[in-house]
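Database export, one record per block. Field names are fixed; values are copied verbatim from the stored entry.
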Amino acid sequence: MRILGTIPHSEFRIVVYELESHLYTEFEAGPMKQGYKWPKSKFSGIPAVQALMDPSFLQNVKTRFSEMYADMSSRIPK
């Protein structure tokens, strides 16, 4: 796995990695991470992956982060 680069975003850290047969996109927000594997046969490089990051997709990522944070917070003793 090697880092291809990053995609700028105001709320998340987005890193694109190259695997043997996939491009792996990692989203990081606070203590949480999400990852998506895109087949290299259909997406070739950061511009192709970045084109997938429309407002609807990014809103879904943000919603999942909120759910993940709520799950994690509910497990941490107060």
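Remark 1: The helical segments are 46-50, 55-75.
Remark 2: The CA atoms of residues 3 and 75 lie 33 Å apart.
End of record.
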